[in-house]
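Fig. S4 source data, part A: sequence.
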Amino acid sequence: MMAATVGRICRTGLLKHKPSHLPIQISSFSTARGWSRGRKAFYATCGVVAGGAGALLFALDQSVKATDLELHPPKNPWNHKGYFDSLDHASIRRGYEVYKQVCAACHSLRYIAYRNLIGVSHTEEEAKAEAEDQLILDGPDDTGNMFKRPGKLSDYFPSPYPNEEAARAANNGAYPPDLSYITSARHGGEDYIFALLTGYCDPPAGIVLREGQYYNPYFPGGAIGMAQALYNEIIEYSDGTPATQSQLAKDVSTFLKWTAEPEHDTRKKMFIKVLLIGGILIAMTTYWKRHKWITIKTRKVFYKPPTEK
């Protein structure tokens, strides 16, 4: 009787406590669910606003760019583009002639010395003769004055202007850039240089150029301060190659590729050596590994039950 009475009391207590906790649990669950919906709506609204603002900014940015008037230079099949291809050294020599007779009047090569030509495009005697043709400012002498002397192999290519202000004054305010690393400094490299030198044309309708400006669709903005420099037969090559405009542009672009990367051929030679030596080392390592592990990988383990005495 006692056990039955205790059981009824416990069951009654359990039934009485459940309804009192159930509304609290349901109300808290509904509150949490309401908060999650509110947060989702808030985040969705923020995403829509951010996406709309980003799209608006992108549209405004594109509207002020003259991308339809600027052309990307086409990729040309250069001889040195392959993994194992070197620069065309005959083209480098011709490109030096183009630079010397056409480009050197406005552009400098301040990071290239005449000794760098030795073994690339000129012999030592030819490079020395090229250096001696230039008058290099040196000094001061014993009296404190500057003087000019014939160039030496250790001298760098002289600048056509004494300073930047003089260069701008001679080119209607435009500063001719140094060409030592121009192919590395411009998007497109030698393709950009070739396209720029051969891409001069009349401006389209609606484009007004200021005095001293010319139109080139490969130049950012289209208006360039450098006039067209290369024409057919503007110079004569020493090796007799026909000096067409495209040939001149191709040779000077190759020359400027070399000035920007004098280590181009050496790097590719080193790559070939690494491949050969690496292949030999990999083969030797593979053979050594198989020789050391052949016993372990091919052995068989037999279980020999103990003999009964």
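Fig. S4 source data, part B ends here. Confidence is low (pLDDT under 50) at residues 12-32.
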